[in-house]
Amino acid sequence: MNNWTGRLKAKMQELGFTQEDLANKLGVTRSAVAHYVQGTRHPPIKQVIKLASILQVDPAWLQFGKAQETTTQSHRSKKDVNRIPILDWHQVIDFQSDYANAKYEYLDYFNRNQIECVALLVKGDSMVAPMSQSMSFPQGSYIILDPNKMPINGNYVLASSSKKDAILRQYIEEGGDVYLKPLNPQYPLLQLERKIKILGVVVANIIIL
After folding, report:
1. pTM (two decimals)
2. Rounded to the nearest 5 degrees, what angle is found at the Cα of 64, between the Cα atoms of 201 and 68?
3. 156, 170 in Cβ contact below 8 A?
């Protein structure tokens, strides 16, 4: 999920931008840019478009590395923006069923080709890290979930052990076992059992400003 930060830092170095320079151009605080660079927070789509324009790159390339690197456009057209359905935490358990014709709210987001993603509004504080510089999923942010991606160690995933609800956790492999780890230490570490189903892998965390 944080590969985009490598592209961000590479373009900043290429153009000679400091974090303070980029903050001034974006009209945000230096702390916000530090979060982007460290990969602990993902900018909302409007900031991605503005950031890409400043760095003279394609917004989709900045996020996913899949588009042309250099662009002279100051913004992308609507056809380049994917409208991802926003599901609630009960609906997502059955999102493998056909939801294309259902009435949902949508989140505009740059996405890779041929990937069917869904968005969820984060609730609760189980994935809020105690240290501000760590990856965190605050309540009110959106996660973008890829249901077709297989998790690897360190990924953030959505999992469910029932038909009632789902949980967001970090996928940890250790000593041949797999665990679902909360970022908030006040919540328990769960060992992955057969009854627990991985619903998808988080590919982005979107903070709506």
Report:
1. 0.66
2. 160
3. yes
The vertex-149 CA angle with 107 and 39, nearest 5°, equals 65
Q: Are 110 and 80 in contact (CB under 8 A)?
A: yes
Rounded to whole angstroms, the Cα distance separating 17 from 110 reads: 24
**What gap in Å lies between CA 121 and CA 209, rounded to an integer?**
14
Contact 43, 36 (CB under 8 A): yes
DSSP structural state of residue 161: S
> Among 196, 163, 200, 202, which residue's Cα sits nearest to residue 180?
196
Which residue, among 136, 127, 149, 142, has the nearest Cα to 201 in the 3D structure? 149
Question: Token pair of 17, please?
Answer: 């931008």
**40 close to 133: Cβ distance less than 8 angstroms:** yes
Look up residue 12 and give its two tokens: 């900043």
Report the alpha-carbon distance of residue 164 to residue 93 in Å, rounded.
8
Helices (H), 40-169: 45-55, 59-64
Q: Which residues, other chains included, contact 114 with Cβ-Cβ below 8 Å and sequence gap of 6+? A: none
Answer whether 50's CB lies under 8 Å from 26's CB.
Answer: yes
Hey, what amino acid is at 134?
S
pLDDT at 96 (0 to 100): 53
Least confident of 69-73, 114-118, 198-202: 69-73
